[in-house]
């Protein structure tokens, strides 16, 4: 009896011990919040990171023809004025910036350094967008993390693999290896007048909270917009048949390329997922939010603007649906069908 | 002169780069669209659809049935069950035949031949009791089921039915962060995990393919079914009256297989949410037209492509393992053999997990093929209990025809119901065999993912065995 | 060329013409390559020509690596390279890069484009891309039996005229059309049939301007290059192997009409 009791206690202790071990393992390996992740985060926050972030910010100011001083640097990097002045001191010593009155500007060395960092940042953003499943709102932060410790060679290898992209996923040009960058194009949406038609070429990804809301609104580079009203600074426009009103703060995050002449307003499209079995439609395009391999695969299968599509059959469980495109039946999940735009065809004859 | 050329060429590249900024972000799309536009114009001029698409209409009618809400799943389960039934029943007889030829008939002849040329005992042991016997075992147990299973599966594939299975199952797998085609690699894994890993090629999305590869080991492969059946009939079947024994033990084995599917889905979900979260993911599933399969060609290619290749790899790994098995059982340091040292040393550790040193050692040295786990366990148990009169001699792997005799040996080795249950769990949840590990490496070309696929199941296995054992002690002792 | 169903056309009846060499590929006269979408019966055509047994299946993406084989036809030795089945040649996936680079840099004497007659429109996407790269190609219109069952009629002569290359209807599974395919391959390889491949017409003016501006500069550097516009387009798409070939000048070694291939 006593031995049985000790076995019971023993296994109770062991059981508890086992649970603790399992929890510790989870705590160490848990992504983002675990010990390993925490450790790498702490490692990141060093001087070089601050220095490069400051250079990036300074270049941004220069590119957009804004002036920049110590306060704005401190604000942008989210550091105290003290640290900011130390940082600027270091930048001055390194010969990366010059200071005139209160205005800080880049030297040639500083500019080419910052262009290098920007190139790395934008290539990685593009990589994260096209070749990984990292969420859209995390591209910028993830690239911000990566850009400081990858080598130039690794980044160039990556760029070569991806077909040397020249735009990042927000529509910003990527500087060339030699540090070339085209002049900024287009106008801010907040500056457009009533009756103007344009195409979104860029959506600024900082601050993140605003960017996330614009993403939720379904706005993306390449989208056609038609400004219907400007009232008290608020801009109202039609994008994909839906009216949308933005405050100046939000509208100034969006850059638009003006379309000359009279451009027919793109008709409102519907989503492929809205087709009922047996319904036919003409494909209008694939949302830019469908990227990388997924986009390529769909286009390979004939999902391109102009081709005809019909919903043929539901799978036994309801989700993917079989669509017929260019003589082949392909299964497409609802989440993807939500990213394919179509114009429904009411008549049955083709 | 040369420098000039170089500079000129650099200029071209730089001009191209500038033009790309000008052409905009959607250049690639417009290039593709322009090609399709030409293709569509040419097709309109040259292709005529006269009347109804007869074959497609038939395809669609078949599809409406096999993907229907009510009939889709029953048809699928029936077909897959038929394939498994044909494999299991069909393989029994040729397996027995091969075993009796290679092991009962050839082995003594080889031994006799070795004795007649006065081969030293250790060489004879290494070559014939070690290498040959392990190889013979793998061939006898592995070849017949694979030679039946793979052609049947390939027939379903050539017919065009398998993509429909993936289509129907996708919803479930999507919720686990995986691809519908994983239903197929999983089914393939029930035949052989290495083949299941190769089959993951049909999944063209990187993340989902990795998930399918890493979790394939949770499909109870053909080499593990015999272990499950044997242990279940000894320990679980023994719990109930004799007339129910076979039903209950079969139920237990199916339960383990279902548990494997459950683990497969849960681990898929976990992987897709954690380590593989960032890997690229793209879904595409073509539903090709049905085509009448060409039976003979299918038989030929599936035998060559799948069966022989997998078998060959298994044999290559089994031979050195056979040698190692023989050596650990027969090399003595002082009083004890290497095996006995290891077993005594690891017993306390193994008991915490409700296993024993014999099982651990068997799983370590029988890593090339699950088929030789039971023979190795029996040999080692006899070795440490010192039982005599069974098997082909000390330190030689063997199997017994009678379940009762096997049970006696295991009971003599101190096995309980708990040991049996844990062995069944551990047989489901342990590292893949070396053939599969090698195949995973060949398919992923990544040491990292090979290591993950190797150690993830074994860590899980130890965890499950540990908690089973400790809970058992808490409640039943 | 008639497309008859009787087996007079089967290669088995033409043993004096076709000798399957399997893997024996020494001292070849011509190198031909086979490209096509997945699931078009490309491997079946390959097996028919070479006598090998590449696995074929009703499931896309079977041929994973490059397969090679050989045959003798009319006393000439041919080496056949079966490229991985791809839908396109324009994106950055490894398979497509292998196929693209082989057609450009490997300079096969003939590229056999195997297409599915029941899905011609989608398959033409790849065919047109190949014709942008090479001007020696034959279109094998496979799965004609299935097209017939679906009441699809294809005007082969019009198609051949549109594409500017020979078009051979075939049903590789039944070994139909192989004789005509071999004859067409021979004609193109020997230069008896001069292809005038279709070039893409629907591009925007802006893109065309960029292409022609780059192409004229490329022409100065690489005067013998046959497919300048395509190379220019690839530069605009950022294709790294082309960029490197321009940088190193390797592109200059690709000449029109050069049929000696070293692999």
Low-confidence stretches of chain A: none
Strand line-up across the major sheet of chain A = 3-8-4-5-6-7
Classification by helices and strands of chain C? alpha/beta
| The top level CATH class name of the domain at 270-344 in chain A | Mainly Beta
What summary fits the major beta sheet of chain A? 6 strands, antiparallel
Question: What's the assembly state of these chains?
Answer: heterotrimer
H/E element sequence of chain C: EEHEEHEHEHEHEHHHH
Through-space gap between termini of chain C: 33 Å
- Chain pair sharing the greatest interface: B-C, 63 and 61 residues
Please tell me the overall pLDDT of chain A: 82
Shape of chain A: globular
CATH topology of the domain at 270-344 in chain A: SH3 type barrels
Order of helices and strands of chain A: HHHHHEEHHHEEHEEEHEEEHEEEHE
Helix content bin of chain C: 25-40%
Percent of sequence in beta strands of chain C: 15-25%
For the sheet with most strands of chain C, the description reads: 7 strands, mixed
**C-alpha-based Rg of chain C, rounded:** 18 Å
The tally of beta strands of chain A, per DSSP, is 14
What's the arrangement of strands in the largest beta sheet of chain C?
Answer: 1-3-4-2-5-6-8
Helix content of chain A: 40-55%
């Amino acid at each position: 009896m006593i031995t049985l009791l000790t076995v019971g206690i023993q296994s109770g202790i062991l059981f508890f011990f086992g649970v603790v071990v399992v929890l510790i393992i989870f705590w160490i390996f848990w992504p983002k919040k675990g010990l390993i992740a925490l450790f790498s985060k702490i490692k990141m926050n060093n001087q070089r990171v601050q220095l490069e972030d400051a250079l990036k910010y300074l270049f941004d100011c220069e590119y957009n023809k804004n002036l920049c001083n110590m306060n704005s640097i401190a604000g942008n990097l989210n550091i105290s004025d003290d640290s900011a002045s130390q940082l600027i001191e270091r930048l001055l010593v390194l010969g990366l910036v010059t200071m005139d009155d209160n205005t800080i500007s880049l030297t040639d060395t500083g500019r080419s350094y910052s262009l290098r960092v920007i190139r790395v940042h934008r290539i990685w953003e593009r990589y994260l967008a096209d070749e990984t499943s990292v969420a859209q709102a995390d591209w910028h932060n993830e690239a911000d993390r990566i850009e400081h410790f990858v080598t130039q060679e690794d980044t160039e290898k990556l760029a070569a693999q991806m077909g040397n992209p020249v735009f990042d996923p927000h529509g910003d040009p990527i500087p060339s290896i030699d540090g070339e960058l085209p002049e900024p194009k287009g106008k801010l949406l907040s500056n457009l007048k009533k009756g103007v038609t344009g195409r979104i070429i860029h959506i600024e990804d900082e601050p993140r909270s605003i960017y996330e809301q614009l993403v939720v609104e379904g706005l993306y580079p390449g989208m056609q917009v038609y400004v219907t009203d400007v009232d008290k600074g608020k801009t109202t426009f039609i994008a994909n048949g839906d009216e949308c009103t933005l405050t100046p703060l939000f509208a100034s995050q969006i850059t638009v390329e003006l379309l000359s002449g009279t451009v027919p307003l793109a008709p409102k499209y519907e989503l492929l997922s809205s087709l009922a079995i047996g319904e036919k439609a003409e494909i209008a395009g694939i949302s830019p939010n469908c990227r990388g391999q997924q986009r390529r695969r769909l286009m390979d299968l004939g999902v391109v603007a102009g081709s005809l599509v019909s919903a043929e059959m539901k799978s036994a469980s309801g989700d993917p649906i079989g669509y017929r495109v260019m003589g082949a039946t392909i299964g497409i999940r609802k989440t993807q069908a939500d990213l394919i735009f179509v114009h429904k065809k009411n008549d049955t004859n083709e | 002169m040369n420098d000039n050329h170089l500079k000129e060429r650099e200029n071209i590249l730089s001009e191209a780069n500038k033009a790309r900024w000008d052409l905009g972000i959607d250049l690639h799309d417009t290039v593709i669209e322009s090609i399709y536009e030409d293709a569509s114009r040419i097709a309109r001029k040259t292709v005529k659809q006269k009347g109804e698409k007869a074959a497609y209409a038939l395809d669609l009618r078949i599809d409406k049935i096999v993907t229907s809400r009510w009939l889709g799943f029953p048809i699928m389960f029936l077909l897959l069950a038929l394939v498994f039934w044909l494999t299991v029943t069909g393989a029994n007889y040729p397996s027995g035949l091969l075993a009796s030829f290679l092991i009962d008939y050839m082995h003594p002849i080889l031994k006799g031949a070795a004795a007649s040329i006065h081969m030293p005992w250790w060489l004879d042991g290494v070559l014939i009791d070690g290498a040959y016997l392990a190889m013979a075992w793998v061939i006898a147990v592995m070849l017949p089921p694979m030679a039946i299973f793979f052609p049947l599966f390939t027939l379903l594939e050539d017919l065009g039915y398998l993509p429909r299975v993936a289509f129907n199952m996708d919803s479930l797998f999507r919720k686990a962060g995986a691809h519908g085609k994983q239903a197929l690699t999983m089914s393939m894994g029930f035949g052989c995990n290495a083949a299941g890993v190769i089959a993951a090629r049909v999944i063209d999305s990187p993340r989902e393919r990795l998930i399918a590869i890493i979790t394939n080991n949770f499909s109870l492969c053909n080499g593990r079914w015999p272990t499950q059946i044997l242990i279940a009939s000894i320990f679980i079947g023994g719990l109930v009256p004799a007339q129910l024994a076979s039903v209950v033990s079969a139920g237990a084995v199916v339960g383990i297989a279902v548990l494997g599917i459950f683990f497969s889905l849960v681990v898929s979900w976990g992987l897709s949410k954690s380590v593989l979260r960032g890997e690229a993911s793209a879904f595409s599933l073509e539903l090709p037209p049905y085509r009448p399969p060409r039976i003979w060609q299918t038989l030929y290619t599936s035998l060559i492509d799948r069966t022989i290749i997998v078998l060959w790899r298994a044999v290559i790994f089994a031979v050195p393992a056979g040698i190692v098995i023989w050596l650990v059982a027969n090399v003595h340091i002082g009083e004890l053999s290497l095996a006995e040292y290891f077993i005594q040393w690891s017993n306390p550790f193994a008991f915490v997990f409700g296993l024993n040193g014999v099982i651990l050692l068997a799983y370590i040295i029988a890593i090339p093929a699950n088929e030789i786990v039971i023979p190795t366990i029996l040999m080692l148990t006899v070795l440490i209990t010192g039982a005599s009169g069974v098997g082909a001699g000390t330190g030689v792997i063997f199997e017994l025809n009678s379940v009762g005799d096997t049970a006696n040996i295991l009971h003599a080795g101190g096995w309980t119901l708990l040991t049996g249950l844990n062995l069944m769990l551990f047989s489901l949840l342990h590292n893949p065999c070396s053939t599969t590990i090698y195949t995973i490496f060949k398919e992923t070309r990544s040491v990292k993912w090979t290591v993950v696929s190797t150690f993830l199941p074994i860590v899980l296995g130890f965890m499950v065995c540990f908690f089973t054992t400790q809970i058992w002690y808490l409640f039943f002792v | 060329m008639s497309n008859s169903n009787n087996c007079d056309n089967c290669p088995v009846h033409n043993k004096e013409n076709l000798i399957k060499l399997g893997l024996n590929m020494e001292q070849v006269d011509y190198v031909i390559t086979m490209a096509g979408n997945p699931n078009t019966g490309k491997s079946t055509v390959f097996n028919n020509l070479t006598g090998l047994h590449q696995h074929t299946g009703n499931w896309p993406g079977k041929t994973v690596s490059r397969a090679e084989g050989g045959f003798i036809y009319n006393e000439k030795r041919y080496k056949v390279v079966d490229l991985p089945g791809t839908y396109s040649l324009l994106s950055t996936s490894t398979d497509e890069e292998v196929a693209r680079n082989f057609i450009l840099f490997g300079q096969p004497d003939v590229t056999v484009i195997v297409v599915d007659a029941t899905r011609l429109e989608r398959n033409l996407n790849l065919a047109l891309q190949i014709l942008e790269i090479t001007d020696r190609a034959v279109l094998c219109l496979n799965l004609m039996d299935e097209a017939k069952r679906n009441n699809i009629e294809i005007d082969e002569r019009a198609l051949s005229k549109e594409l500017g290359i020979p078009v051979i209807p075939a049903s590789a599974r039944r070994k139909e059309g192989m004789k005509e395919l071999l004859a067409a391959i021979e004609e193109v390889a020997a230069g008896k049939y001069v292809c005038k491949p279709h070039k893409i017409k629907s591009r925007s003016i802006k893109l065309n301007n960029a292409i022609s501006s780059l192409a004229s500069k490329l022409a100065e550097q690489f005067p013998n290059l046959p497919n300048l516009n395509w190379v220019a387009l690839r530069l605009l798409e950022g294709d790294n192997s082309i960029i490197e070939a321009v940088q190193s000048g390797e592109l200059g070694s690709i000449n029109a009409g050069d049929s000696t291939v070293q692999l």
